[in-house]
Write a structure and sequence with these properties.
Layout: E1 14-15, E2 18-19, H1 23-29, H2 35-49, H3 57-70, H4 78-90, H5 97-104, H6 107-113, H7 119-132, H8 136-149, H9 153-169, H10 174-184, H11 191-204, H12 213-230, H13 240-247, H14 252-265, H15 269-280, H16 285-301, H17 307-315, H18 322-335, H19 343-352, E3 358-360, E4 366-368, H20 370-377, H21 384-392, H22 400-404, H23 415-423, H24 432-446, H25 452-456, H26 474-483, H27 491-496, H28 503-514, H29 517-530, H30 533-546, H31 554-561, H32 566-580, H33 587-596, H34 601-611, H35 619-627, H36 643-666
Helix pairs in contact: 1-2, 3-4, 3-5, 4-5, 4-7, 6-7, 7-9, 8-9, 9-10, 9-11, 10-11, 11-12, 11-14, 12-15, 14-16, 15-16, 15-17, 16-18, 18-20, 19-20, 23-24, 24-26, 26-28, 28-29, 28-30, 29-30, 30-32, 31-32, 32-33, 32-34, 34-36, 35-36
Length: 682
């Protein structure tokens, strides 16, 4: 296996982390009898020799030895080594031909391995036939033969994926491969295999899909699950594996099959919603759990009427399996207002399970529990009694104020308790910012004017306020005072902040209080030219609020509007409009920024609404946004990300642009640039 390994000058070769002198040890460890040693060696080779798809001289030197290892049946875990070889040859970054050529030189080894006694080796070798054999016709014939001979379901699935890969790589020979996929998608083949074939057909030949795709897929899924349920797993009741399977879903293969189909359907949202309906109403809780996560991906990425899907998510909350209930709660908490169709189910769970109101985290602290968080984020006032109970306790969850803020005025009964907690925070403590930030968010959302004294004491320079401490929340304090209409009471402290890093926020608050440009304009001009990028953007927003009184800022704002960054262009362009009421230099900037950065579109839409008839040339942008099926702002991750509510806010802003257009077309317009606040972000 290792003939010649010591003749290679490994110390002169390199990998991702430097000298390759450790590579011979990894290669020998791949043949070790110790499982942990083999796994460590394989991880090391992936990380060092194929780091982010890169190819090094040591990578090329390893290839012959890797081929030697995979041909020895006595070597354990050869499937992982085959996968490494395929990755080196097929997935190298920047299209490096050296790695591909090195692996192609051993292509005949993969032909033999497709008939290896080890199914993991056969599975890993399937795609290698497509990647590395020079003759497409031969590769296709070998795949056909293996489909006829193979009996292992996982290997069969890999062969179907290889057929779809063949279609993409060799379109001139695709028809025969598509015929094989279509054949495997029909009786008499097993349900799982047929479902897999449908998914691959949807990826490469959607025209060959049956007209009744969704009902067929749902039926096959349930037949496959029924078959799985009849399979007895030995010692499941007493083994560690059995206990783990009772705690979480374990059918990764089934998840992969449906994920492939959802991915292939893409923008066919109606079909995907119907497919989710089948997944979420099936008898198998594992299938329903996979459906929950796939529903999250659909709602997160696509705009549609998701009410039916959300109702089915709510129906999972009374599941006997904790992992299914918890998955549904996690997804519903991410939906915010879109969770309304499941609000009754959430409220029922909140009432039935007070033990779920909080979630313990490290060091004994807690966060708001998923069901109550989802109900509050939905703006449902029925969350108030449970939140009141937690606020009355000795240790309310640290994030409670942030979640309470989603209730807005409905949380008014909680105002005294929030105010009391805010007043107990020591102003000069290192924990002040962490403790006060969520409570300030709640005070602002409720609009509790009685909390002004408690808010003011957190602002440096006010009577009884903080002294020399890290004013990490001064900006939030100022914003809260503005929301409460209490900036006049903080004028001395705000003036003192005009020479700090909070100058832009303080200037905006002073403008709200006194409308005196002579006080705030010098500070804003200074921040516009010398501040950090975020301060410059906020300064542009605040200058726009001053209207014509900020004409001294026009030269700098015009330069800022020519920035290559859309996030600089947009606040500058909006400020130019508010100061000059001239749309001609502004509209091209907004059009370019809209195309460049979707995160600016909500701010642009607000500006277009304020512009009234002058924005007519850009109203098609809002119409196109409303017609687009995909969300631009939703993040890929779950766990409470704000992508969905941000995207829904963008859609509301676009609808307002079009509604304003209709209003101005139906009657005389009195549009003038507004001097009201304009948010700097989207």
């Amino acid at each position: 296996m290792f003939t010649g390994i010591d003749e290679v000058d490994w110390a002169s070769l390199h990998h991702a982390y430097g000298s390759a002198e450790d590579v011979p040890g990894w290669l020998r460890a791949l043949a070790s009898a110790d499982t942990a040693e083999r796994a460590t060696a394989l991880d090391g080779m992936y990380g060092a020799l194929h780091h982010q798809g890169c190819v090094y001289d040591s990578t090329l030197a390893c290839v012959p030895f890797l081929f030697s290892l995979v041909t020895r049946e006595e070597v354990p875990d050869r499937g992982g080594i085959v996968e490494l070889l395929v990755g080196i040859g097929a997935e190298s970054a920047a299209g490096d031909p050296r790695a591909r050529d090195a692996v192609c030189a051993g292509a005949e080894v993969f032909v033999r391995l497709t008939g290896d006694p080890d199914p993991t080796v056969r599975r890993a070798s399937a795609s290698a036939l497509v990647h590395f054999l020079a003759a497409p016709a031969r590769a296709l014939e070998l795949l056909r033969q293996r489909l006829r001979a193979e009996r292992d379901d996982r290997v069969l699935l890999a062969l179907l994926e290889a057929l779809a890969l063949f279609v993409r790589r060799h379109p001139a020979h695709a028809d025969a491969a598509v015929d094989l996929l279509a054949e495997q998608s029909a009786p008499p083949y097993a349900p799982g295999l047929r479902l897999a074939a449908l998914g691959q057909l949807a990826l490469v030949a959607p025209a060959r899909l049956p007209a009744d795709l969704v009902p067929t897929a749902v039926r096959l899924l349930r037949e496959r699950s029924a078959h799985r349920a009849r399979i007895t797993e030995p010692c499941a009741a007493d083994s560690l594996v059995g206990r783990i399977r009772r705690l979480r879903p374990s059918d990764e293969e089934g998840s992969r099959l449906l994920h492939t189909l959802h991915t292939a359907l893409g923008d066919r949202v109606d079909d995907r919603i119907a497919l989710l309906g089948g997944q979420l109403t099936g008898p198998d809780p594992v299938d329903r759990c996979h459906g929950v996560w796939m529903a999250a991906a659909l709602v997160r990425g696509w705009r549609a009427d998701h009410a039916g899907t959300v109702r089915l998510l709510g129906a999972q909350l009374d599941a006997e399996r904790d992992w299914l209930r918890d998955a549904a709660v996690t997804v519903l908490a991410e939906l915010f207002a879109l969770a309304t169709p499941a609000a009754d189910d959430l409220y029922g769970l909140v009432c039935a399970r007070p033990d779920l109101w909080t979630h313990r985290v490290e060091r004994g602290s807690s966060t708001l529990g998923g069901p109550l968080k989802a109900l509050a984020r939905n703006g449902d006032p029925r969350a108030v009694p449970a939140l009141a109970h937690l606020l009355a306790g000795p240790a309310a969850p640290g994030d409670l104020g942030f979640e309470l803020a989603h209730l807005g005025a409905a949380a008014a009964p909680l105002a005294p308790a929030v105010r009391h907690r805010l007043g107990r925070i020591p102003p000069a403590s290192p924990d002040t910012a962490r403790l006060a930030a969520p409570l300030l968010a709640a005070v602002g959302a409720i609009g509790d004017e009685d909390a002004v004294p408690e808010v003011l004491r957190l602002l440096p320079g006010t009577p009884g306020g903080v002294g020399a401490w890290d004013d990490a929340i001064a900006g939030q304090v100022i914003a809260t005072l503005e929301v409460l209409g209490a900036t006049a009471r903080a004028v001395p402290a705000l003036r003192a902040l005009l020479h700090t890093r909070h100058a832009t926020a303080a200037a905006g608050a002073l403008w709200s209080a006194q409308q005196d440009a002579s006080i705030v304009l010098p500070a804003l001009l200074r921040e516009l030219t010398r501040g950090d990028p975020e301060s410059r953007r906020l300064a542009a927003v605040q200058l726009g609020r001053l209207g014509p009184a900020a004409r001294a800022a026009l030269p700098t704002l015009r330069r800022m509007a020519r920035s290559p960054l859309a996030r600089d262009q947009v606040p500058a362009a909006c400020a130019l409009w508010r100061i000059t009421a001239d749309p001609e230099p502004v509209l091209p900037v907004l059009r370019e920024a809209w195309a460049q950065d979707p995160h600016t579109r909500r701010t642009i839409a607000r500006c277009l609404t304020a512009m009234g008839p002058a924005a007519a040339p850009l109203r098609p942008l809002a119409a196109a946004e409303l017609a687009a099926p995909r969300r631009h702002l939703a993040r890929s991750g779950g766990g409470g990300g704000r992508g969905i509510p941000e995207d829904e806010a963008l859609l509301r802003a676009c609808r307002e642009v079009l509604a304003r257009c209709r209003r101005t077309q139906s009657g005389p317009s009195r549009d003038r640039p507004s001097s009201g606040p304009e948010p700097s972000g989207s």
